[in-house]
Amino acid sequence: MARDLLGKVLVYDGPAGRRAVRLVEVEAYLGASDPASHAYRGPTARTAPMFGPPGRSYVYFVYGMYHCLNVVASRGGVAGAVLLRGAEPIAGVGDDPRALAGPGKLARALGLTTAQTDMDLVRSELSIRDASPVQSSRVVRAARIGLNQHATTHKPWRFYIRGSSGISRP
DNA sequence: CGAATGATCCGA
DNA sequence: CGGATCATTCGA
């Protein structure tokens, strides 16, 4: 579940060395039942990772200048992914959480591009590691951000840690 | 092919 | 609120 990614540590051992952050904001996207999902209209070359096994990365390029990182998390055999939207600095990304507040900024701070799509997030240079669970009382559940009206489901599939400074929008 | 569009961000 | 800026997708 998307919510369970909160508090976990994302590590990228890239060309610039180790970069690590603590996830504080995520959004869930389903497949055919979710008009806002890239998997809504079936598989394409770009969205192929979303239809593969869970626990891998799906990175896409948008607006001609930003990359966004997702964790593939199919639900009962149905395509799905979790968009990583915000984090707090741990190592190698400076010390300003605002530089990690937003999916485009997060991917940029880590140095991720579509070259890092479809990677094994358990055992590769891009990985997610367990951390102590975040208390439910610290988690806020809300509507997702940035979707056009038609794709908006109004379902509360955005999760973030209350009070964190690495959040894109309170 | 050509055109429209977008899970964003920044600055005015 | 609009501009930047281009890979991807869809229709002809």
Briefly characterize the structure.
The protein has 170 residues and is mainly β. Helix content is 5%, strand content 32%. The protein has one helix at residues 103-110, and strands at 9-14, 17-29, 57-62, 66-72, 81-91, 126-129, 139-142, 158-161.
Can you walk through the features of this model?
- It is a single chain.
- The chain is mainly beta and 170 residues long.
- It has one domain: 3-methyladenine DNA Glycosylase, Chain A.
- The chain is built from one helix and eight strands.
- Strands 1, 2, 3, 4, 5, 6, 7 and 8 form an eight-stranded antiparallel sheet that branches.
- 42% of the residues are buried.
- The model has no long low-confidence stretch (mean pLDDT 95).
- The structure holds a DNA duplex (12 and 12 nucleotides).
Q: What is the succession of H and E elements?
A: EEEEEHEEE
**What is the name of the CATH architecture?**
Roll
- Alpha carbon gyration radius: 15 Å
How far apart are the first and last residues' alpha carbons, in Å?
Answer: 21 Å
Can you count the beta strands?
A: 8
Strand content: 25-35%
